[in-house]
Amino acid sequence: MAKKDKKGEAVAQEPKSMSAEEKKEFKELQKLAYKACSSLQSKETVVGGRRIRFFSGKKFCQHLEEKYDKSHSEAHRIGSQLLRDGVIVRLAIDEKVIKRSGKADKVQKSLTLERKTPFIFSDDMTPYYWRIEPTNYKSLFIGGAMLVAVLAVVLMPLWPESVRRTVSNVGWGLLPLALLLLVMPIIRWVLQKVVYFLTCKKYNFVLLPNLEDESLGVLDSFKPVYEFDVVRDDFAEDSDSDEEEMGDGEASGQEDEEAASDSDDNE
């Protein structure tokens, strides 16, 4: 019999004793589960007031076959084992018909926990969700670096005098750069407005135009240094394009009329 946890989800009972081979297979399965959790594309939704990441059994099997060179039977077996171990949980699709006056009835679908067959894995569109979180190596690296930095600052009184003096000089040297980065948005805005009004609203000057572009790297964000171009009148351009389209439409209409008159003459 399956047990249920505090949240009402069915979980499998772990065996009391495992052999060395079974323990090795269990650890390998856990490693594969964390890798698949990080690499398998999933969607997010809210079930029972909790945000979850769900996927279909079909996508799970296809992912193991393509990325980890597993056969379909092996992928199905792994999914069944993860389901029994409580790593993934089976969901059910609940359909609710909403009646609307004067319109066709609307079917609203939502995900709920599967109560009838919680330990049956299906390689179809049946939804499942992860009970583990994917490993984020970037977050681990940033957290470790922050921890090292905090420890280094706390232990600063124990540093040699020469190292403390060097760090202090470097910090004071970087202070103007930090202040410049803080006031850079104000400087850019002031320069843009000054050039704009001094040229009677004809030219636009932007200092470091790619500075706030998050898609670029650190060095590319400072290229080019500035942009100086003529202010474009979007309304005039739109009106010109509309006139061109109207002219093309009139020309095509005239061509159609000429073609129709030619066909009548031939008849």
Structure explained in plain terms:
It is a single chain. This protein has 267 residues and is of the alpha+beta class. It has six helices and nine strands. The strands form three sheets. A five-stranded antiparallel sheet has the order 3-4-7-5-6. It is flat.
Q: Could you give the count of β-strands? A: 9
Terminal Cα span:
87 Å
> Radius of gyration over alpha carbons?
33 Å
Count the helices. How many? 6
> Which strand order does the major sheet show?
3-4-7-5-6
Lay out the secondary structure.
Layout: E1 3-4, E2 10-11, H1 20-39, E3 43-47, E4 50-56, H2 57-67, H3 72-84, E5 88-98, E6 106-113, E7 127-130, H4 137-154, H5 161-198, E8 203-207, E9 226-230, H6 234-266
Antiparallel strand pairs: 1-2, 3-4, 4-7, 5-6, 5-7, 8-9
Helix pairs in contact: 2-3
